[in-house]
Design brief:
Layout: H1 2-54
Length: about 55
């Protein structure tokens, strides 16, 4: 019974660590997407300002 309990505990810990890694990766991807969106918006603003200065 003790061995079965140890396996169950180990399995739960492994599952939690795996899902935690997945959650961290998802959060990192979201943060990168947000940064990219901000940079794209900034580049569009710079481009628009440069076009307006030429006229």
């Amino acid at each position: 019974m003790i061995d079965l309990n140890k396996e169950y505990t180990l399995s739960r810990q492994l599952l939690r660590s795996g899902t935690s890694i997945g959650a961290n990766i998802c959060e990192s991807v979201r943060a990168c997407n947000e940064i990219i969106s901000i940079l794209v918006c900034s580049l569009k603003t710079i481009d628009l300002n440069q076009k307006m200065q030429k006229h």
